[in-house]
Structure formats: C-alpha cells, structure tokens
Amino acid sequence: xxxxxxxxxxxxxxxxxxxxxxxxxxxxxxxxxxxxxxxxxxxxxxxxxxxxxxxxxxxxxxxxxxxxxxxxxxxxxxxxxxxxxxxxxxxxxxxxxxxxxxxxxxxxxxxxxxxxxxxxxxxxxxxxxxxxxxxxxxxxxxxxxxxxxxxxxxxxxxxxxxxxxxxxxxxxxxxxxxxxxxxxxxxxxxxxxxxxxxxxxxxxxxxxxxxxxxxxxxxxxxxxxxxxxxxxxxxxxxxxxxxxxxxxxxxxxxxxxxxxxxxxxxxxxxxxxxxxxxxxxxxxxx
Amino acid sequence: xxxxxxxxxxxxxxxxxxxxxxxxxxxxxxxxxxxxxxxxxxxxxxxxxxxxxxxxxxxxxxxxxxxxxxxxxxxxxxxxxxxxxxxxxxxxxxxxxxxxxx
Lengths: 286, 102
Fold this sequence. Notes:
The structure holds 2 protein chains of 2 kinds. Chain A is α/β, with parallel strands linked by helices. Chain A contains 8 helices and 9 strands. Chain B has helices spanning 17-30, 48-59, 75-87, 92-95, and strands spanning 2-6, 13-14, 35-39, 45-46, 67-71. Chain B starts with a strand and ends in a 7-residue tail after the last helix.
C-alpha cells in the first residue's frame, strides 16, 4: 500500500506541515511518496530538518521512500541537499537535478552525533559566511556562537536514538539573513527543566524561563547561559536584527531583537512536538 | 619558568566543553607550580561554553597557585572569556593579566 504526502507551496520557518496520516493507517503502508512539486522558495532550514526527520523515521520503519522534486528548479536544488547524506541513500529521487549543491545552502541537514560534529558545523558555517558570503561576512561570529551553543545543547540534553540535526541557509528576503535550524528528539525543554522546577506547569512559560541566564536542568549553577550568550553576541555583532523561535512539547516562544529593542512572545504551539526545535535567524543590515 | 602553550596548534576555533576539558587538563597536567601562558594568537573564535569550561578547570586548580595568563587574545575572544569569568565570579586580578590585542 502506498501513501502520498503532498507538501504545499511554503517551506516555512516553523516547518509548515505535519505527519497527518492516522496512526491506524500507518501500520499498513509500505511505500511513502513525498510530493514536493508545489514547493517554492524560500525554503527554510527548519523545513528541511523536519523533512529529514520525517523521512528517516519512515525509513527506519522499513518503508520505501520516494521524494518528488519541486517544479521550481531553484527550490529543487535546495531540496536536493536533503538527500545528500548517506543515511538516505535508499531514498528514490524523482525529477531532481543531478547536482546535490545549492549556493543558498551553507550547511545541508547534518546529523549531530558528538561534539566533533558540533565543532565541524560551527567552523564550517563561520568560514563559509566570513569568506564565501561577502555581503554577510559580518555575521560570521554570531553564526558561530549560535551554532556552537544550540548544537551542544541538542546533543547534551537531547540524547535519543535518532539524534540531533542542524541545517543552515542564507535566505534572501526583504533583508538578507542567515537562518539556522537545530532540532533534537530528546526529552524537550519543559520536561528537562521540570526535573528541577516541578511547579512550572505551562510549557511556553518554561521555555521562556530557559532563555533566562542561569536557568538549567543540570543543577550546575554555572550552566544555563548558552541562550544569553548567543543574545549577547548579537549586541557585539554588526547585525540589523535577530529572532529565535523555540518549539518544545506544547510550548513555543518567539524572541526578536531589533537594535536595542527586544520582545519575547510566548504562544501556544500548534501541535505537540517531541524534543526541541529551534529556528534562529540573524538578519544583516541593509 | 613559563609553561607556554600555543592554543592555535589545536585549531583556530573552539566551540565545545569537551574541547576545553582536553586543553584544560593538558595545561593542568603539564604545569607544576610555574607560570602558564595560554597563547591565543591566530585563534579566531571561542564559544561561551568553551571559555566557561576552560576557566572552570583552571580555577579548580587555584589551590596549586598556578599563575595563568591568556595572551594574544583577539577582542572577541577576550570578550567571551571576560563574560565567562564574570559569571563564575573569578578573581578580577587573575583576569586582569589578560592582555588584549586589537
């Protein structure tokens, strides 16, 4: 039995779609086709990370997978990078360009297994931004700090069978930006912090606390400063704005910084998300 | 005698706690009551986690009275170490010996 999952036009920052097949049906299909023919740019790295996890999940269940390319060639070249990892070598590509590279993709979706992978990801992106993207070169330091801290958190607190993932792209919208997506399928921020603060019930509230200094689930009074230091680096970097969105369990927050102004908005998550999913965008000055 | 370590021999960017632990332990094991100079020339970036872990290891050896100096740090590397030291309430006189290059 085959199931066809059709993706819409937008590959949004929040992921934009979910696994909507009823659980009872999942037990019976052995081939999955993901039809991305309608997909257009911009495709954000969070979309690619969600797609990768989705594909790996079904591959691990023994299903044959087919990915249909977007009709738009630029979108197809971005999406093609998802399949460049050998973990998806059995994925059948339909109507894709031969090349697995795109100038927009600074770091294709990569699995993070250990701290060496974190080091490589942070250094690769810093080098590509500072030397390969001359108009965004000033964002190299902020990119490095964000990838280092977010990815280290993902592998330290998100241990699980599937692992953690990172992807980085440049996105050319009204302003140029570096967009980073980091995800893990571990315990998630709310449950992790509730081990120390059991009275914190609301998931969005807990995530909001997690970005405050010295709030950590480890019990070490010197830990829990990673988010704060990412934001501090924003201040010392010559950037126009930055925004971070964090989804975990039933909670979500968005934090934006423009110049000296900051705004933090908790909002209800559209659906439960296992683990922690973070989008971080660093926006270049005009 | 000064125990001098060129950090850039291990790389030009440092981003994780295990990397800091490796460097910190090498410093602690190699030194014996002398002045230690960690030379950050040509090091481009360090993450906050790296700086925090390295300072934690060095500070834990304070009873051995090791005199540690971080030299040739870039402005950005110095900023990150300063933040980590501030959060750990590390003695400012110890930190004041960090010279900053432009």
